[in-house]
């Protein structure tokens, strides 16, 4: 029931936004995905929910004259891989992920069940019903190149940003300092349904109810801040750039425990007196 509600909201609100001439955002309200590149060379970054396939195909068929070179995964949570297998089969393309994410994508290991106690928001309370079992992508699943390059598009590199998941990655283009953050941090309070629906802009940490390692998540935010991004495209929330991004990301990095870490996690990490 919960998953069907999430899918319905996504389907009713699906839209696209051209963020840059070569970056198209798929906004499913609950989650974002991207088509990155030009007509001659492009990739799909993440694959939305299980009912996102038709909208993605319809949009990309109009925008591009050829199939993507690959699908790149920031990580394997259900809202990023929902239409993945059908899109990969239709396009006949490889799926790239970090090696540490591959057990969750090859049927070997389930993600932990989401933790509803991390926040009082409705999304957090619904999260234990979100799918978390492993999927098996078979022969299409391929590890990302060790040199940091992104197969299918030039000028971008992938960065290991663990914490939300073990093999989480973000994508960065040095030439214009564009960052596709994945779930390393968000620009909305994803735990709250009202915030997610309204797209209220507020830099937060990764979605708390499915984050596996808060210390690594903090380090990943610090790493991304060090890139000095001019524009961020998150998987949850609206794109943000300029001085607003600079100030908000600096605040998140400096106050990560207060802003992002659930209170019970922070209390467990406190030294005993």
TrEMBL record:
<dbReference type="InterPro" id="IPR050855">
    <property type="entry name" value="NDM-1-like"/>
</dbReference>
<protein>
    <submittedName>
        <fullName>Glyoxylase, beta-lactamase superfamily II</fullName>
    </submittedName>
</protein>
<dbReference type="InterPro" id="IPR036866">
    <property type="entry name" value="RibonucZ/Hydroxyglut_hydro"/>
</dbReference>
<dbReference type="Pfam" id="PF00753">
    <property type="entry name" value="Lactamase_B"/>
</dbReference>
<dbReference type="InterPro" id="IPR001279">
    <property type="entry name" value="Metallo-B-lactamas"/>
</dbReference>
<feature type="domain" description="Metallo-beta-lactamase">
    <location>
        <begin position="30"/>
        <end position="236"/>
    </location>
</feature>
């Amino acid at each position: 029931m919960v998953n069907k509600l999430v899918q319905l909201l996504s389907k009713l609100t699906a839209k696209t936004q051209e963020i840059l001439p070569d970056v198209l955002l798929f906004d499913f309200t609950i989650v974002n995905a991207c088509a990155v590149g030009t007509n001659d060379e492009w990739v799909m970054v993440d694959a939305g929910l299980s009912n996102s396939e038709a909208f993605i195909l319809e949009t990309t068929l109009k925008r591009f004259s050829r199939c993507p070179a690959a699908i790149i995964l920031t990580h394997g949570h259900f809202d990023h891989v929902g239409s993945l297998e059908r899109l990969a089969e239709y396009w006949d393309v490889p799926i790239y992920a970090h090696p540490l994410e591959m057990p969750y994508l090859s049927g070997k290991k389930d993600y932990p069940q989401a933790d509803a106690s991390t926040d009082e928001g409705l999304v957090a309370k619904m999260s234990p019903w979100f799918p978390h079992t492993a999927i098996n992508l078979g022969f299409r699943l391929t590890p990302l190149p060790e040199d940091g390059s992104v197969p299918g598009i030039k000028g971008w590199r992938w960065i290991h940003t663990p914490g939300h998941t073990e093999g989480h990655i973000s994508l960065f283009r040095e030439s214009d300092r564009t960052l596709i953050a994945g779930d390393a941090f968000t620009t909305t309070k994803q735990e709250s349904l009202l915030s997610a629906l309204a797209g209220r802009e507020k830099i937060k940490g990764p979605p708390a109810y499915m984050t596996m390692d808060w210390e690594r998540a903090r380090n990943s935010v610090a790493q991304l801040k060090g890139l000095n991004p001019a524009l961020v495209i998150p998987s949850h929330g609206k794109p943000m750039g300029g001085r607003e991004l600079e100030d908000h990301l600096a605040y998140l990095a400096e106050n990560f425990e207060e802003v992002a870490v659930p209170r019970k996690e922070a209390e467990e990490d406190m030294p005993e007196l």
